[in-house]
Design goal:
The complex is a heterodimer of chains A (646) and B (205). With 646 residues, chain A is mainly alpha-helical. Helices cover 62% and strands 1% of the residues of chain A. In chain A, strands 1-2 form a two-stranded antiparallel ribbon. The radius of gyration of chain B is 21 Å and the shape is elongated.
Chain lengths: 646, 205
């Protein structure tokens, strides 16, 4: 008897027919996904109805619960099953020989391979980016819709509930299914390459985490179809308001669970990859800062994200099972929601910016042709932000009626976070100092990021102090602040990262002139859109209200026009990306003459990244240091690699 | 496609070529520990809700549970003993396969599954006879929240153990390769430890 154990070293492949010869209904793919989706929904429906019928509860068909169990939990699982996410595991747990499906599902040979459960981290990275940019577009269109409503005082196109639904949807899409996973996508592509690893530690789990994401985003969007309209409680979804809203709210609660599960599993995967799969010689102090950034971010995700899962569970329990977690009349504690929610969601703002810090560190060093200033301090400041990030959540609750004694400690710890963040900003500036700066598109976005993030950071320090928050809370000043750190900060780094790795991902070069045009349009219209919001906020215009006083009319019209320009600037980006991917000039393997490992292999990289595992011999940023090498590659190295340190 | 794969890797291997192992801990074990870390934090959010309802809330009940409700400490105590014992049988199963004792592995897994099932059934019967419902106030929300979350984890643990047992009876696992037993084992011990915390905080103090 052959004794078989463990995933990657199983003995026989097997008796099962090759997947592509099976009937289209049974073959993993969208057809099987469709009927499994329907089947699992029906299972959920009859499960709920059956239990309610047996227990004698009325009504037997309670659509609140059926939507939750059948539609938002079981049906997506059915979809994933049909798509083939679980095939390997199901074979494994049943003790049957596993089908050798991995290589067929690894790497992309045609465009169709991007629509499969693909286990190649490079393909998954691209899947992430394309998916997140679809949600980015939809979220942006919604922003333009409600900006149109805000062009004039009074109510023009929509009622309050619709307006709040659009605002909430905009935020939920942008935060949960655009920024966080877009970083996961870039890191998915770059991190294993930078480490000298052939793939992530758990490729199938990686594929599964990606496919959670379209489910989460679609779930958010489907709430528009629910009776009573989309969820309209803002992205914070405060209880007890959230447990009393129409049924669309459940789509938010569950969508967050799917997106959260996706980011937890990805983070776990990153941590294991970074700890166990580094190339020989790649000590922690030789890792590129993008890897450091994702290491820190993943720790944050693993520790904090379960808290938002918990908070959304409580809201759903309050609605479905009539519990009283947040019902004061029955002994519940309303502020509990905010504490638990912000215990995740404050660290989440670092989840949304730390990977961006990593991207910027790469680009600034490469494009200035200088070693990054204070490499170790850059890594340590990430860890400092990680630790401090858990001690500041209640600064979101200064006006919520929480205990007074919590205010000042939270204010001080919030101000302290400016120290590690300042370390990073000054290190970037010091890296630029006397460098041979190349002002290409990734570098422009990086410089744009630094300047905008400093503005957002300064208004953050401003808001950290209790008296200012009391004045500015729930005004457009907050909206301006969050967009300076999330758009001017995170989104600009996402653009920088995409332009930087575009040649590596596609093997083609983007159009530099269009890239620069995109940057300047974005940079200018972004400032025209969000800078005036500081002003209207400070003089008292409240957020989350569809109507406003006549005295804000001129500035709001100006903001609306600028926001349309901002929307238009994205068209330049999409045009550049699509046309360059299809017909752009063939890119060299190392167009930026960078030292990190991903640039030492062909563009796009070979299916398993490296022919031989590289040997790391030095730091990743020794630009201009005579004779310095980051790594020695045998076989897979390209001539350009040897010039990288010039 | 598979011809291409075989040309690359000799055809007897799934997934990418082996990476450099830069840490002594096996990736699967590290992954399980990290997963348990997030699970502990999920329990943490439920304990936070418990803390808010019982301690922070100005209207917190003076007795726990608020009279006239009672938690069945004795039955839950027996249940605790069952679950703790099942951790030992789980350990026995793992030690057995390390010493190439297949019968011990099979018996250990079966006993663990039996005790886990007994725990869940007892919990279910306890729910049916406890005398209050989820809608009977915040203490009940916390009680059903924490014990229910834990029960869901027992269920997942039982599923994992069933998979392991299925493979154990089909002749898989060896003294060298037994991650498939070790991983559910780690998870099971976590579920067990978590129960002790839940039992102490919710039922006893």
């Amino acid at each position: 008897m052959s004794v078989i154990e463990h995933t990657s070293h199983d003995a026989g492949h097997g008796s099962g027919a090759p997947p592509n010869r099976r009937n289209i209904l049974m073959r993993p793919g969208f057809v099987r996904a469709a009927w499994c989706f329907a089947l699992f929904f029906l299972v959920g429906l009859y499960l709920v109805a059956g239990i309610r019928w047996l227990a004698g509860w009325d009504p037997v068909y309670d659509w609140n619960i059926i939507v939750l169990v059948g539609g938002l939990t079981l049906a997506p699982i059915g979809f994933l099953l049909g798509l083939g996410s679980f095939d390997y595991w199901l074979y494994w747990i049943s003790g049957r020989p596993t089908i050798p499906d991995d290589h067929a599902n690894h790497g992309a040979h045609t465009w169709k391979d991007y629509f499969k459960v693909n286990t190649d981290h490079k393909v998954i990275g691209v899947q992430y980016l394309v998916t997140t940019f679809i949600f980015f577009t939809l979220g942006g269109l919604m922003a333009m819709l409600f900006r149109a409503e805000l062009a004039q005082p009074g109510m023009q196109f929509m009622d309050n509930q619709t307006y709040n639904g659009l605002v909430s949807m905009h935020a939920a899409l942008m935060i949960f299914v655009f920024i966080i996973p877009a970083f996961a996508g870039l890191a998915n592509f770059a991190v294993p390459l930078m480490l000298g690893a052939p793939d992530m530690a758990f490729p199938r789990l990686n594929a599964l985490s990606f496919w959670f994401l379209p489910i989460a985003g679609t779930m958010f969007l489907c709430s528009f179809l629910a009776p009573g309209g989309a969820f309209a409680t803002g992205w914070t979804s405060y209880a007890p308001l959230a447990s009393e809203q129409p049924i669309g709210q459940i789509f938010f609660n569950m969508g967050v669970q799917w997106a959260g599960a996706s980011s937890i599993l990805t983070a776990l995967n990153f941590l294991v990859t970074i700890i166990t799969m580094r190339a020989p010689g790649m000590t922690f102090w030789r890792m590129p800062l993008l890897v450091w950034a994702n290491f820190t971010t993943s720790l944050l995700v693993v520790i904090a994200t379960p808290f938002i899962a918990g908070s959304q569970f409580f809201v759903m329990f309050d609605r479905i099972m009539h519990t009283s977690f947040f019902v004061p009349a029955d002994g519940g504690y309303v502020l509990g929601y905010q504490h638990i929610f912000w215990f995740y969601s404050h660290p989440a703002v670092y989840i949304m910016i730390l990977p961006g810090f990593g991207i910027i560190s790469e680009i600034i060093s490469v494009m200035s042709r200088k070693p990054i200033f204070g490499y170790r301090l850059m890594a340590m400041s990430l860890l400092g932000i990680l630790v401090l990030g858990f001690s500041v959540w209640a600064h979101h609750m200064f006006v919520a009626g929480m205990a007074d004694w919590l205010r000042v400690p939270m204010m001080i710890s919030t101000l302290l976070i400016a120290v590690p963040t300042g370390v990073k900003v000054f290190s970037w500036l010091a890296t630029l100092w006397e460098g041979r700066i190349k002002l290409n598109t990734p570098m422009l976005f990086s410089l744009g990021f630094i300047s905008m993030f400093v503005i957002g950071g300064l208004s953050g320090i401003y808001l950290a102090s209790v008296p200012i928050t009391i004045h500015a809370s729930d005004t457009y000043f907050i909206v301006a602040h969050i967009h300076y750190v999330l758009f001017g900060g995170s989104v600009l780094t996402v653009f920088a990262g995409i332009y930087y790795w575009f040649p590596k991902m596609t093997g083609r070069m983007y159009n530099e002139r269009l890239g620069k045009l995109h940057f300047w349009l974005t940079f200018i219209s972004f400032n025209l859109t969000f800078f005036p919001m500081h002003w209207v906020g400070l003089v008292g215009m409240p957020r989350r209200v569809a109507d406003y006083s006549d005295r804000f009319a001129d500035l709001n019209l100006f903001v609306t026009i600028s926001s349309f320009a901002l929307g238009a600037s994205v068209v330049v980006f999409f045009y550049n990306m699509i046309v360059s991917w299809a017909r752009g000039p063939i890119a060299e393997s190392n167009p930026w003459r960078a030292m990190t490992l991903e640039w030492q292999v062909s563009s796009p990289p070979p299916i398993f990244n490296f022919d031989e595992i590289p040997q790391v011999v030095g730091g990743p940023y020794e630009y201009g240091v005579p004779g310095a090498r980051h790594a020695i590659l045998t076989g897979g190295g390209t001539p350009a690699a040897k010039e990288a340190h010039a | 496609m598979s011809a291409h794969a075989e040309a690359l890797h000799g055809g007897d291997h799934h997934g990418p070529p082996p990476a450099n192992q830069s840490s002594r801990i096996a990736p699967t074990i590290l992954g399980m520990f990290l997963f348990i870390g997030t699970e502990a934090m999920l329990f943490g959010s439920f304990f936070a809700a418990y803390f808010f309802v019982r301690v922070v809330n100005p209207d917190a009940p003076s007795t726990w549970p608020p009279a006239p409700n009672e938690f069945p400490q004795f039955v839950a105590g027996i249940n605790t003993a069952i679950l703790v014992t099942s951790s030992f049988t789980m350990h026995w199963a793992l030690q057995s396969i390390k010493r190439n004792n297949r019968r011990g592995l099979q018996a250990g897994l079966l006993l663990t599954i039996l005790m886990g099932t007994a725990f869940l059934l007892t919990q279910f019967i306890e729910y049916a006879h406890i005398g209050f419902n989820t809608s009977d106030g915040a203490f009940a929300s916390v009680f059903f929240g924490l014990t229910g979350l834990h029960g869901a984890h027992v269920l997942v643990g039982l599923l994992l153990l069933t998979f392991a047992a299925n493979r154990a009876f089909r002749g898989h696992y060896s003294p060298e390769h037994h991650h498939g037993v070790e991983l559910p084992g780690i998870y099971w011990h976590f579920v067990d430890v978590m129960w002790i915390v839940v039992y102490v905080t919710v039922y006893l103090i």
